[in-house]
Amino acid sequence: MDQTYILLLGLAALVAVVAAVVIRKRMQQDQDESTPADSPYATSTEGEKRCPKCGMGNMWTDRQCIACGAALKG
């Protein structure tokens, strides 16, 4: 093996590593931008009844769905 071949092989490996680092960094930036920020307001579904017809969340004391009027179990 001559030195030119080894030099080209090393250069190709270096380019591949740099490309992988750049691609990974861009993917991380895209993921960070697409992730929504956490809301400062707490949300809870504890004690909530889901309507079997439309899926709307209702208070546990409701007898009818507030969206479609369907009867709720319990």
Question: Summed up, what is this model?
Answer:
The protein is mostly helical and 74 residues long. It has one helix spanning 3-34, and strands at 48-50, 57-59.
Give the tags.
single chain; 74 residues; mainly alpha; two-stranded antiparallel sheet; 1 helix; 2 strands; 8% strand
Total DSSP helices: 1
Average pLDDT, to the nearest integer?
87
Intertermini distance: 81 Å
Question: What is the strand arrangement across the widest sheet?
Answer: 1-2
Q: Give the overall silhouette.
A: rod-shaped
Count of individual beta strands: 2
Low-confidence stretches: none
Portion in helices: 40-55%
Radius of gyration: 28 Å
The sequence of SSEs as H and E is HEE
Largest sheet: 2 strands, antiparallel
Backbone structural class:
mainly alpha
Describe the protein in words.
- There is one protein chain.
- With 74 residues, the protein is mainly alpha-helical.
- The protein is built from one helix and two strands; from the N terminus they run αββ.
- The chain has a two-stranded antiparallel sheet.
